[in-house]
Amino acid sequence: MRVGIEKVNLYGGRAYLTIADLASARGGSLAELERRQMVPYEARAIVPPYEDPVTLAVNAAERLLTDADREQIELVVVATESAVDFGKPISTWVQRFCRLPAHSRNFEVKHMCYGGTAALRVAASWVASNVRPGKKALVINSDLSRTRNHVQTEDDDLGELMAGGSAVAMLVSAEPQVFELELEKAGYWTNELSDALRPNSRTEIITGQTSFYSYLDALEETYERYEHLVGEVDFETYFRKNIYHAPFPGMTKVAHKTLLNRLGVYDKAAIEASWRERVADSTHFARRIGSAYGASTFICLLGMLHAGTGFAAGDRFSVFAYGSGCQAEFYSGLVGPDATTYVRGLDVDQHLDSRVRFTVDQYEQVEKACEVNIDERTYHPLGQDVGDLYAQRYDGQRLLVLEDVRDYHRHYRWS
């Protein structure tokens, strides 16, 4: 049975901050930041107080689903490391506000940036089991960063760049028009490690160097396992393009270099040319969003499919997912017959272009408001609007927003 992604959609919020503005405000050099990042960032998403992982998830899924899709969905899996409750899963709100059948199974999964891949693999295996022929799964990864005052990193200026919020929703079925998973071709590797933590509702701790090298160790281990299961492959010909988890876009360069070194390629010019041909297009949307956590690999897949150059339907892409803690997976899939046409039809660039550009001062006002709300029993986020954003980009647009929190109960409504 063919199984994989039938539809996909990205929701990148309604406001953004340019990295140039942020670098200037922090007294740093944009050129130096770009040198250290290796692949320049353009912007990072800003999530206002009246959006959260629930609204991000629903707003990503709403554009994706038709009434016919809704009737066929019997499994909903939401991956997040930004849950709004320690017990109640985001998936319950998704089931409600996306108007999905009551006779469906829903749950939430957590594994840092691996969560989205875990959710996809579970959903794909369920579809492949054919226990409910013709039925489909909705998989969403929804995340946002902590406020900068509560993110502890070894490098503060880079840490602030690696922040943001977004969601990717995927319809998984036996009609993989976008990307067909090769379910049996997957190498995975796990290793207990505390390279990133969210020990409470306020704090995010990122041990950059430890996470960096763990990522690379996991990449080599999972690729070796992939070959162990599939048989030795010619990397250059077996995979047409390569998708990597991108906590920042430049990490794709380091990852690709690591695999090429393992295969005996050390020439710098050859490595750069290979990255530009096989990887660079995947960073197209990632450069405009900031950190996407578990949605990262899917945003990179969207970027590659949007470019639509150097591959054809049926070509094989490799995909590498990494989540701190840690879990990693190297797997592969085939480009669907309508992939590029479909992804371009989403007009993600227009969606990102339509966001409101915030100043650094406005961004800091949003951060302060969100920080005040953490763990509050009652608050009214719609009264904390900044820059008239709600009137400009939400009012009348039928986007889900957090209306208020009363005695810890969250109340949502459509804008």
UniProtKB/TrEMBL annotation:
Keyword Ligase: no
Keywords: Transferase
Record InterPro entries: HMG_CoA_synt_C_dom (IPR013746), HMG_CoA_synth_N (IPR013528), Thiolase-like (IPR016039)
GO molecular function terms listed in the Swiss-Prot or TrEMBL record: hydroxymethylglutaryl-CoA synthase activity
Stretches assigned to the Hydroxymethylglutaryl-coenzyme A synthase C-terminal domain: 273-383
Protein's UniProt keywords contain Mitochondrion: no
Gene3D superfamilies recorded: 3.40.47.10
SUPFAM superfamilies: Thiolase-like
PANTHER family reported for this sequence: 3-HYDROXY-3-METHYLGLUTARYL COENZYME A SYNTHASE, HYDROXYMETHYLGLUTARYL-COA SYNTHASE
UniProt name for this protein: Hydroxymethylglutaryl-CoA synthase
Taxon lineage: Bacteria, Bacillati, Actinomycetota, Actinomycetes, Micromonosporales
